[in-house]
Amino acid sequence: MDTEEVVVPRVEHPLYERPEQTSPSIQQPTGPAPQPASPAPAPAPEPAAEARTTPSAEPGADDKAEEREPYRARRRQSQRSASEEFQPAFSPPARPARAKGAAATAPGTRPTADSLDPVSLLRGRRNAPAGGWRKIVYKASAGLIKPGESPEVRRRRELVTRARTPVATGHHRVAVLSLKGGVGKTTTTVGLGATLASVRGDRVIAVDANPDRGTLSDKVELETSATVRDLLNERQQIKRYVDIRAFTSQAPSRLEILASDRDPSVSEAFSSGDYQAVAQVLENFYSICITDCGTGLLHSAMSGVLGLADQLVLVSSPSVDGARAASATLDWLEAHDYADLVKAATVVLCSVRPRSKSTVDLDKLESHFAARCRAVIRVPYDPHLEEGAEIDLDRLQPATRQAYLLLAASVGDGFGGVRL
């Protein structure tokens, strides 16, 4: 059989006409073929690591490089220490030390706006005595003699500063409780809350968590008949502060009160779950929540109160049975895993008469609670508090107002975020 010779035609393709050396990018000619150029000298070999990150020589490669950044490995953050773990997420910047008056300006330096402060410009405005013989001497000398402030004034300023301690966690819950009734628990709640609200700029609310009918609403003039049960039923509708104000009453001191049920026909007790639901709503609108607990430790709402409390205020009377009941309360708390709250608690001895015929050793009683808790405050007897009606701070005796300010300062020491 005759075989025919198969002739394979030559395929014309630009690749077959190019030299063996290839360029980094291959493009098909669209116009007339360019004149062959003299071969360029071979570039020096680059390191392999740099070759992977060298941008392409194609047109528009610079734009692509700008659009897609090379991957960079994230730095591993160092582990935070235990002291930094409990620090608040935001801390205000520290104020620089400001020079007082033009005398503090160094010679040869240019004065700034910080040198124009009230101390140097307003003569006699600062350190003016508020009363007593110091004020008489100050006015008699037309302000030329400044005896300075009394120790009482400086002490009050220190207590106010402690009471104004910012709430580091955003919301702080204080539980006021007692095992024995009739010792001034509700009165202490209002006195503490009114003092904090009057010296602070944020919102303070007192909640009546008594499972039965509480008496917290009797201590202020009511602005609404709504109760904590109404707020609990309408909590899904509360979105703003003006919504929650429909359920609270505000005293002249700016303290707000959330009253308990006053209807005797109500048979449903305020439970632990109810308190937790109410507390979840209040923490969005108030910085401090003071809870007036019911008498005893085993009622329905107490477990919810103690589970959320940041600080305790234990109220007792200066008597043998009242002191033993208060000490038994501390024993119960320590036996039920609340020892940290006991150590940071403040004990209040109410209605201490200065010239009482009682033979109870108050100093020994105070030392007993001071060994177990953080602070002990004596609130003296006050005729205005004995009335059992609405409490007005302006009608209290100076010693009683000073005692409540000392209580507010002691409670304010716990606002820093770390239990003392």
TrEMBL record:
Residues 1-117 are annotated as: Disordered. Residues 174-385 form the CobQ/CobB/MinD/ParA nucleotide binding domain. InterPro entries: CobQ/CobB/MinD/ParA_Nub-bd_dom, P-loop_NTPase, ParA/MinD_ATPase. It comes from Sphaerisporangium album. The lineage of its organism: Bacteria, Bacillati, Actinomycetota, Actinomycetes, Streptosporangiales. This is MinD/ParA family protein. Residues 10-20, 61-72 have a biased composition (Basic and acidic residues). It holds the Pfam family CbiA. GO terms for cellular component: cytoplasmic side of plasma membrane; cytosol. One of its GO terms (molecular function) is ATP hydrolysis activity. GO terms for biological process: negative regulation of cell division. Residues 31-46 have a biased composition (Pro residues). Residues 47-59, 79-89, 99-113 have a biased composition (Low complexity).
